[in-house]
From TrEMBL:
<protein>
    <recommendedName>
        <fullName>Type II toxin-antitoxin system ParD family antitoxin</fullName>
    </recommendedName>
</protein>
<dbReference type="InterPro" id="IPR010985">
    <property type="entry name" value="Ribbon_hlx_hlx"/>
</dbReference>
<comment type="similarity">
    <text>Belongs to the ParD antitoxin family.</text>
</comment>
<dbReference type="Pfam" id="PF03693">
    <property type="entry name" value="ParD_antitoxin"/>
</dbReference>
<dbReference type="InterPro" id="IPR022789">
    <property type="entry name" value="ParD"/>
</dbReference>
<keyword id="KW-1277">Toxin-antitoxin system</keyword>
<dbReference type="GO" id="GO:0006355">
    <property type="term" value="P:regulation of DNA-templated transcription"/>
</dbReference>
<dbReference type="InterPro" id="IPR038296">
    <property type="entry name" value="ParD_sf"/>
</dbReference>
Length: 93
């Protein structure tokens, strides 16, 4: 796979962020500011992909839940859960 040609951009950062970048580069953790920014972008892209995947899964589960039978009032659901919990707690004693 051939890598796309890199394009130069200019960004403006607050002094504290710039200081952190310079510190990491000067410590040898990164070879250059560009290397650090590319790594930060890869991390951001991964986080965004994971977020979108989680949202998609939640939407799928909600759609499945919506089609899985008659709705139960929230108070009824919590009462049922409480009874099941109490029953389980008695078994464990």
């Amino acid at each position: 796979m051939q890598q796309a040609k890199a394009e130069r951009i200019t960004i403006t950062l607050p002094p504290d962020m710039l200081a952190s970048i310079k510190k990491e580069v000067s410590s040898g953790s990164y070879g250059s500011t560009s290397e650090l920014i590319r790594e930060a972008m890869r991390m951001w892209q991964k986080r965004e992909e994971e977020y979108k995947a989680r949202i998609s899964l939640i939407r799928e589960r909600l759609a499945h839940s919506e089609q899985s039978g008659e709705p139960v009032p929230l108070n009824t659901a919590f009462k049922t859960i409480k009874k099941l919990h109490q029953k389980q707690a008695k078994k464990e004693v």
